[in-house]
């Protein structure tokens, strides 16, 4: 989708459809509250045409409402945003997403950008507009025998701002496109069927995607290399697979890096399919287990966006890829395996496999001594019980890091909530004939107990945070800029916001 700036204008750009925002004002008249529409920033001719329509007298500009009319041969879509003093950035994002769905049938659309500005924050508002359109335009239809490509090719952004803002606005557009494109890349990976996205294929796809991004290096480690690294927990999950485990080690170094440049490390769970292993999932629970690699797709997308935006922070991204399958070589319940860090783990349930992959990958990442280490994983069904399907669980050993992540998620308008890791849960993950066990003694507190297990593999005093995205990585139908079914890409923008703060 092409975005074209049209600055220093007070007229309506020529397009198939014109999108413009309206607000609502409520006043008390007598004993009644009366709402009226507010047309701030509207071109005079357009305002006159709107007011000449008899039915426009009933339109109040309430949030979520729309009004359509024709202006000199072009369709006009009015998007209601409600009370301007109460509107939020997420309100604007959602209403623009709905607007995209209404106007995507046109080839060229113009938007009165100034009417969708949040508290005079032009660059931020412009980014929201671009993100909303690009994320809403996403479709995963490559396996349909017949599919329709999007008709909307160009979006003209009208603004009364002078040309002096052009460079800043263009950067805001470009950065927002990098972020939205990366969200959509993550969605693509998660939506791929498991017979296509084998661990080996996934690693090659990531390598190909970053090949031409400046400052990025990619190293892929297979089973032999992982054996040399003593990543026995990771390999125990891979034992039943016909495909080699893959550890993808990505690094991004900014062009002006110094010894003071912050170093952030990401680790992502890349279970391309999870049968549960010998602790086999029921058939209904096995459906959609291609989604179990969403953590790796999430951190990769954030890494990718940051590199394309040329953020001044060094980033390492570690992706642990395998499937959890069953054959005669698969790890059996009760097995005891030694981790990379030397601790032994009794594997009581082979369906608690993600934490085994993550454990060795976290230990590996800690050796790089980053300033902060963040992992993302679809780790526990318990997270859905605790926080529902709309909230990402956050657990951490460092309050400052946790606070910064919560701040970033708020800035990105994504939901994140911190859960505790208490000593009792740490104790519950201790073994009797091994150092650790991979499940707790009861089903209660499962999300934080899994985090307590992961914390055993954090060393070198690294500040660490764990994001359980089991609820939010899939089917966020309440968000109009996400597909109603399939990968959401939620939390990518939060991680990008976090990187921008460093």
From TrEMBL:
Q: Which residues form the active site?
A: 281, 355
Pfam family, any one: Peptidase_M17_N
Family of this protein: Belongs to the peptidase M17 family.
- EC number(s) per UniProt? 3.4.11.1, 3.4.11.10
Q: What does this protein do?
A: Presumably involved in the processing and regular turnover of intracellular proteins. Catalyzes the removal of unsubstituted N-terminal amino acids from various peptides.
Origin species, per record, is: Halobacteriovorax vibrionivorans
Q: Where in the cell is it found?
A: Cytoplasm
**Any one GO molecular-function label of the UniProt entry:** aminopeptidase activity
**What reaction gets catalysed by this protein?**
Release of an N-terminal amino acid, Xaa-|-Yaa-, in which Xaa is preferably Leu, but may be other amino acids including Pro although not Arg or Lys, and Yaa may be Pro. Amino acid amides and methyl esters are also readily hydrolyzed, but rates on arylamides are exceedingly low; Release of an N-terminal amino acid, preferentially leucine, but not glutamic or aspartic acids
Query: Would I find Manganese among this entry's keywords?
Result: yes
Task: Kindly list the cofactors needed.
Answer: Mn(2+)
User: Cytosol aminopeptidase domain: from which residue to which, for each copy?
Assistant: 349-356
- Can you name this protein? Probable cytosol aminopeptidase
Keyword Flavoprotein on this protein? no
- The residues that the entry says bind Mn(2+) 1 are 274, 351, 353
Residue numbers binding Mn(2+) 2: 269, 274, 292, 353
Q: How is the cofactor bound?
A: Binds 2 manganese ions per subunit.
- InterPro entries, alphabetized: Leucine_aapep/pepB (IPR011356), Macro_dom-like (IPR043472), Peptidase_M17_C (IPR000819), Peptidase_M17_leu_NH2_pept (IPR023042), Peptidase_M17_N (IPR008283)
Q: Which domain of life is it from?
A: Bacteria
Assigned keywords, A-Z = Aminopeptidase, Cytoplasm, Hydrolase, Manganese, Metal-binding, Protease
Query: Which HAMAP family does the record match to this protein?
Result: Cytosol_peptidase_M17
**Where is it chiefly localized?**
cytoplasm
Among CDD domains, the record links this protein to:
Peptidase_M17 (cd00433)
């Amino acid at each position: 989708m092409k975005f074209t700036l049209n600055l220093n204008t007070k007229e309506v750009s020529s397009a198939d459809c014109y999108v413009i925002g309206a607000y609502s004002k409520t006043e008390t008249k007598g004993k009644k509250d009366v709402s009226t529409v507010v047309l701030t920033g509207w071109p005079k001719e357009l305002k006159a045409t709107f007011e000449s329509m008899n039915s426009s007298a009933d339109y109040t500009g309430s949030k979520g409402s729309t009004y359509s009319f024709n202006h000199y041969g072009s369709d006009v879509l009015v998007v209601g945003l409600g009370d301007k003093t109460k509107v939020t950035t997420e309100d604007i994002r959602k209403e623009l997403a709905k607007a995209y769905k209404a106007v995507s049938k046109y080839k060229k659309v113009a938007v009165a950008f100034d009417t969708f500005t949040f508290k005079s924050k032009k660059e931020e508002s412009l980014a929201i507009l671009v993100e909303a359109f690009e994320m809403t335009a996403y479709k995963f239809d490559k396996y349909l025998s017949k599919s329709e490509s999007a008709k909307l090719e160009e979006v003209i952004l009208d603004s009364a701002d002078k040309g002096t803002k052009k460079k800043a606005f263009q950067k805001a557009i470009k950065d927002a496109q990098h972020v939205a494109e990366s969200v959509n890349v993550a969605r693509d990976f998660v939506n791929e069927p498991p017979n296509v996205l084998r661990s080996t294929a996934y690693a090659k796809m990531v390598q190909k995607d970053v090949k031409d991004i400046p400052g990025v290096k990619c190293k892929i480690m297979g089973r032999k290399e992982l054996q040399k690294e003593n990543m026995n927990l990771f390999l125990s999950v891979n034992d039943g697979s016909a495909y080699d485990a893959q550890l993808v080690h990505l690094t991004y170094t900014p062009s002006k890096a110094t010894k003071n440049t912050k170093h952030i490390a990401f680790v992502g769970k890349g279970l391309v399919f999870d049968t549960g292993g010998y602790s086999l999932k029921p058939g209904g629970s096995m459906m959609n287990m291609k989604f179990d690699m969403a953590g790796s797709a999430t951190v990769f997308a954030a890494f990718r966006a940051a590199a394309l935006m040329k953020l001044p922070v060094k980033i390492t991204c570690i992706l642990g890829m395998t499937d959890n399958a069953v054959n005669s070589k698969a790890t059996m319940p009760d097995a005891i395996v030694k981790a990379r860090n030397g601790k032994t783990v009794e594997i009581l349930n082979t369906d608690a496999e993600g934490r085994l992959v993550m454990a060795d990958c976290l230990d590996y990442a800690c050796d790089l001594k980053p300033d902060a280490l963040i992992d993302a994983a679809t780790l526990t069904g318990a997270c859905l019980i605790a926080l529902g399907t709309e909230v990402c669980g956050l657990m951490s050993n460092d309050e400052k890091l946790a606070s910064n992540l919560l701040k970033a998620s708020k800035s990105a308008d994504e939901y994140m909530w911190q859960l505790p890791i208490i000593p009792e849960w740490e104790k519950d993950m201790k073994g009797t004939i091994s150092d650790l066990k991979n499940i707790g003694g009861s089903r209660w507190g499962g999300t934080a107990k899994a985090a307590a297990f992961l914390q055993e593999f954090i060393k070198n005093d690294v500040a660490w945070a764990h994001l359980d995205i089991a609820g939010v990585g899939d089917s966020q139908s309440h968000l109009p800029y996400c597909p109603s079914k399939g990968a959401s890409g939620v939390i990518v923008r939060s991680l990008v916001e976090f990187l921008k703060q460093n």
